[in-house]
Write a structure and sequence with these properties.
Blueprint lengths: L2 E6 L11 H6 L1 H14 L3 H6 L8 H21 L6 E4 L4 H8 L4 H18 L5 E7 L3 H8 L5 E8 L2 E7 H13 L4 E4 L12 H11 L11 E2 L6 E2 L5 H8 L6 H10 L2 E7 L4 H9 L4 E5 L4 H6 L2
Parallel strand pairs: 1-2, 1-9, 2-7, 9-10
Antiparallel strand pairs: 3-5, 3-6, 4-5, 7-8
Helix pairs in contact: 2-4, 2-6, 4-5, 4-6, 5-6, 6-9, 9-10
Length: 304
């Protein structure tokens, strides 16, 4: 029998109404949303369930996404669903830490709220940018951008889709070079900052200081770190990995490949959207992928 991985999406997957059915129909879901409101001093249900401009602002998005995914996770655990390994894309790594038992729900929510604020404030609006590069390998992209200043790979998402980040003018200039080198498309992303680039290194350092006050426990199951795409089985390196993650490339494709090599053949995406499921299907057609967005989806999970 194969292994199951719980995987968690990152910023960009947020949508108005996410988690609402878990809040309205489960005691555990309601408790986690209400606890987030108490911790952060604003209404998490209002942020997630009612149309507003804040949901797409980084300092609010991150806390909203993590609260939503963790509410779903805890309802799943209550119903007897557990994983052999956990992983998350960027922000989603904090949900993976909670799933692994490294971090409490409360600490995960508090930490990502601080992370969102630090990332929001790190670079003035309009200075940085990100673009998705389609139709090129990682090697081909790196061969181009290694010759250019002020731009780097932010996300290795899946074959044929890699995201670059850096100073806006540099990212725009890289787009021209990448198209000349054979990229099918280079799509500017509607983001508030140059995430996972060296421009956020100071934000990572400040986050590291905050993490010194956060309890990190020994993991009950391993999780896969974005920075290394390797299994983490002890608590000793967690803070350093999270600090580095803010300004380092997210090695998502490599993380999925590590899990498949370890025998994972079922991936359960917990949170809004199907972004990670789409990536995984491009990485391997030999695994099963299930999405959990509503309580009814738990019935589907029992059948696979």
């Amino acid at each position: 029998m194969g292994k199951t991985a719980f995987i968690f999406p990152g910023q960009g997957a947020q949508i108005c109404g996410m988690g609402q059915e878990f809040y309205e129909t489960t005691e555990t879901g309601r408790r986690i949303f209400d606890r987030a409101s108490e911790l952060l001093g604003f209404s998490m249900p209002e942020l997630c369930f009612e149309k507003n401009d804040r949901l797409d602002i980084t300092e609010y998005t991150q806390a909203a996404m993590v609260t939503t995914s963790l509410a779903m996770l805890k309802v799943m655990e209550e119903n007897g669903f557990f994983a052999d390994v956990a992983a998350g894309l960027s922000l989603g790594e904090y949900c993976a830490l909670a799933a692994a038992g490294c971090m409490s729900v409360e600490d995960a929510i508090r930490t990502v709220r601080q992370r969102g604020i630090l990332m929001q404030e790190a670079v003035p609006a309009g200075v940085g940018g990100m673009s998705a590069v389609l139709g090129m390998t990682a090697e081909q992209i790196n061969a181009v951008i290694d010759t250019l200043p002020d731009v780097q790979v932010a996300n290795y998402n899946c074959p044929g889709q890699i995201v670059i980040s850096g100073l806006k003018d540099a990212v725009d200039g890289a787009a021209v070079k990448l198209k000349e080198a054979g990229a099918k498309r280079v799509i500017p992303l509607n983001v508030s900052g140059p995430f996972h680039s060296w421009l956020l290194k100071e934000a990572g350092e400040k986050l590291g200081e905050f993490l010194e006050k956060v309890e990190i426990r020994e993991p009950k199951i391993p999780y896969v770190a974005n920075v290394t795409a390797e299994y983490v089985t002890g608590s000793g390196q967690v803070r350093e990995l999270l600090k580095r993650q803010v300004s380092s490339s997210v090695r998502w494709q490599q993380s999925v490949e590590s899990m498949i090599t370890d025998g994972v053949d079922r991936f359960v995406e917990i949170g809004p959207g199907k972004t990670l499921s789409g990536f995984i299907r491009k990485i391997s057609r030999d695994v099963t992928v299930v999405n959990i967005e509503k309580p009814a989806d738990l019935e589907r999970l029992q059948r696979v």
